[in-house]
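My main concern about presentation is that the manuscript never shows what a single data entry looks like. Each protein is reduced to its one-letter sequence and a matching series of backbone shape codes. For the editor and my fellow referees, an illustration may be useful. For illustration, here is how one protein appears when written out as sequence plus structure tokens:
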Amino acid sequence: MTPCETKAKSKHPSYGKVFLMFARNSLVRDMMFRANFLIESVSSVCWAIMNVGLYWIIFEHTTSIGRDTGWGKYEFFVFMGTTWIINSLMQTFFMPNSEEFSELIRTGGLDFAMLKPIDTQFLISLRKVSWSSLSNLLFGILLMVISLAHLMTRAENPWHFQPSIVVLYPLYIACGVAILYSLMICLAATSVWLGRNQTLYDFWFYITNFSRYPMEIYARGWGLPLLFVFTFVIPVLVVVNVPARLLAQPLTPRASWEWPLAGFTLLATVSSLNVSRWVFQKALRSYRSASS
């Protein structure tokens, strides 16, 4: 290796260190406005508590979500906790940056981002961290711990800890985040062609709203086309359902299709990341500088 190559290599950025710098700067910025940080955190937790209260009332009138699905009160609360963990990670690390992508295009800030000696998609995706959004993650974990404690102590068919969960649950949480990130960065990339994509958050909410419920509710009538599309075309249904099923174990013995679905989720994760990378790179090649 020549001295020039060694020097160039030494100047190559460490992505881990860059991300930690982004996270630290975001935390410093949030702490400058502590009241705003506190209000955002408390409002997020209050919204979560109200959701739990709503479903608690619903379960006063029924024993499960769907007939013979296994999603009783506490199984479903594990599902809700998983939903909040995944959504909290998305809102903490990716949502603030994706929402500002169109503004970078309009103001010419994307020009400077593309000139940085670091991958543009990495820079665009992670330059800001919304620390207040982690409050829902903590609440989701607390809700799951309480729900699993109830499942472990019930008289009939108690929940049993399985060592494989320690590996599989975080793995499929990461898969869920990766799938949702891929969808989000594809939506953000459309700003290059549309100019200002003001409907990003609305469209994001409409699509991901399907992932907030057990997939069995779509298994009849008009729900079947939705089940197919949002499992195999836009795979948002596997985002929460797979990790929540692994943890809550709603069906005993397990249904024959659960493990194939878990295998498909790994394939869907890799495919989603590759498609989103292709869309983002194509968008950058179509981008025209604000000064041109």
Summary: The radius of gyration is 21 Å. Residues 14-286 form one domain. Residues 1-10 have pLDDT under 50 and may be disordered.
